[in-house]
Write a structure and sequence with these properties.
By secondary structure, the protein is α/β, with parallel strands linked by helices. It has helices at about 35-40, 60-65, 75-90, 105-110, 125-130, 140-145, 150-155; strands spanning about 1-5, 10-15, 15-20, 45-50, 70, 95-100, 115-120, 135. The protein has a single domain (about 20-150), classed as HAD superfamily/HAD-like (Rossmann fold), CATH 3.40.50. Helix 5 (about 125-130) links the parallel strand 7 and strand 8 (about 135).
């Protein structure tokens, strides 16, 4: 569990972190060692789930290497949005952080109690940028905010 109290704002008790994979944690289907190390550490504290269409066929590798849940979202494009949102609801939206960058992440980000947008090498969709509670440059940065949650205070304090 990650506990975070923001002065002048809300308190969060996070038990689940759900991440989009490509464009958020991985570039062209490949996660770097730093992201993988952070995911391992984070999974010692909360339930970590990675969502992917597995475009590059790397999901099996990461599931076994990282010991986290990897869910393949293989639906027609318009149903991907709802499928991601449903994963957040099933995890318990009131205690879930969603990390993403794409258009198909917007509803999941709006549903989760807290969301982090990643503006990495693949960019970030405009609406995703608007709905994210925080925006960072990389998947590493997003995971670091959760591993060191007091870093969120400066950006969220009111």
């Amino acid at each position: 569990m990650i506990r975070l109290s923001i002065p002048g704002s809300e308190s969060y008790q996070i038990s689940s972190v759900i991440c989009d994979m490509n464009g958020t944690l991985a570039v062209d289907g490949v996660m770097n060692k730093a992201v993988m190390d952070r995911l391992r550490r984070l999974s010692n504290t909360v339930e970590v789930t990675i969502l992917t269409a597995d475009t590059f066929g790397t999901a099996d590798r990461y599931e076994s290497e990282l010991g986290v849940t990897v869910k393949r979202i293989r639906t027609v494009p318009k149903e991907e949005v709802q499928a991601k949102r449903e994963v957040v609801i099933q995890a318990g939206a009131a205690n879930t952080v969603f990390i993403g960058n794409g258009a198909n992440d917007v509803e999941a980000m709006e549903t989760a109690v807290f969301s982090i947008g990643v503006m990495g090498k693949e960019g970030i969709y405009r609406r995703t940028l608007e709905v994210a509670d925080m925006v960072v440059y990389s998947g590493e940065d997003a995971l670091d905010l959760l591993l060191n949650p007091t870093r969120l205070i400066a950006g969220l304090r009111r």
